[in-house]
Amino acid sequence: MERSWQRRWCLWLPPFPLLLAPAALFGATVALRRGLYRRSLLPRTRLPVPVIVVGNIGVGGNGKTPFTQWLVQLLQDRGYRPAVLSRGYGARKGPRPLRVDASLSATECGDEPLLLAQATGAPVYVDANRVRAGRRAIADGADVLVCDDGLQHYRLRRDVEIVLVDGQRRFGNGLPLPAGPLREPRSRLTEADFVVVKGEGKAGEVSMQFVNFRLRRLQNGALFEPGTFAGRTVHAIAGIAAPDGFFDSLRRLGMIVIEHPQPDHAVLGAQMLDFGDDLAVVMTGKDAVKCQPFAHSRCYALDFDVRLDDAFAARLLEKLGRGQKTARHPGLSAVQGPAGV
Q1: What EC designation does it have (predicted)?
Q2: 60 is in an annotated binding site
Q3: In which domain, by residue range, is 278 found?
Q4: Is 63 annotated as a binding residue?
């Protein structure tokens, strides 16, 4: 169902008439809420360290998680102590904020927070209240906060806004939810500091490319070149917002794909990895953190590196350092960080 809605929104098919009224109401509510925050009629909180917000104006599938991983690693490389603030979609209810470590399960903290914690080693805090999570992170020693999927969390004041866009789907039919894919109107992009496009961007946008693909066996971490699987039929599992992009990536790497799309953040079990044959099972990095405990020897994750222009990294670090007496990081080498799908 989720996949069929995505396709309808992004193929410019006419919306169902019954959805136009709810979409108009949603758009008006979003505009009203943002207006109240901008006029300080709803309270906003400024924390004592820089806050970088990473998000999107539409539904998922824009490369936000790989970008966030790249960003955290960039900050670590430049001497910062970043912490990630996440809502932890799909996490089990419990005391908040929850500090994520590699020993937790995706059920306890959410798949994306667990992936980011394992991939970067940075502290990740799960809490729908980002201000509360931010205060805990600062108390634990963080000197910069990365608010994952926090564009619409206006209560927390931010120093840098980065919006992710899918270069192929862009903004679909341009309508707000549920008639279209947009959480906020396209005009919102003019207020962001950077617009990062997964794929080829337009003028004024930053292009993000996924490169250096490899397959990682879940049981032991062994790495394999994609050519090892070229011409072979594989089962492909993708519990992400836009699974078609993952399946297309496998095909471009030469694999014959049997698609098994799942809802975004779907709970996966061992039985879902058993297809009654001896074919390899390839999944996204986000699904891999959920399947790690029960994966069999034919389960692999598709990993890759994220490549962004060095000039973008320099501008981002410069903006982050404004207001300080001296620049913390005057030099900048080539930037490329590993990330799972």
Answers
A1: 2.7.1.130
A2: yes
A3: 209-306
A4: yes
